[in-house]
């Protein structure tokens, strides 16, 4: 069972931009191999950072408004949001320690 919240164009504002805790947004697609590599790492990190940050998933194929607004041209893209503003970004598949480092910076 996924611990990650699926976010859509319709729910992005409520789930991400007005969130009271920092948010990591995973923009992915079902056909994307690197996205499938990152998915289990994000599941683990969602558990590890529960209550301090949340990790959400946006299906790029189903949510073109969010993808366009975020300026995403390659997936997977991880956007790091605090107080409604994207503060950092990771493009492509990265190992868990790299993603965790970005989350640590986001919540500090």
Automatic annotation (TrEMBL):
GO terms for biological process: cell redox homeostasis. One of its GO terms (cellular component) is cytosol. Disulfide bonds join 32-35. The record marks 26 as: Deprotonates C-terminal active site Cys. SUPFAM superfamilies: Thioredoxin-like (SSF52833). Pfam families: Thioredoxin. GO terms for molecular function: protein-disulfide reductase activity. The record marks 33-34 as: Contributes to redox potential value. The active site is at 32 (nucleophile), 35 (nucleophile). It comes from the Bacteria. Residues 1-108 form the Thioredoxin domain. InterPro entries: Thioredoxin, Thioredoxin-like_sf, Thioredoxin_CS, Thioredoxin_domain. Keywords: Disulfide bond, Electron transport, Redox-active center, Transport. PROSITE patterns: THIOREDOXIN_1, THIOREDOXIN_2. Belongs to the thioredoxin family. PANTHER family: GEO12009P1 (PTHR45663:SF11). This is Thioredoxin. The lineage of its organism: Bacteria, Bacillati, Actinomycetota, Actinomycetes, Micrococcales.
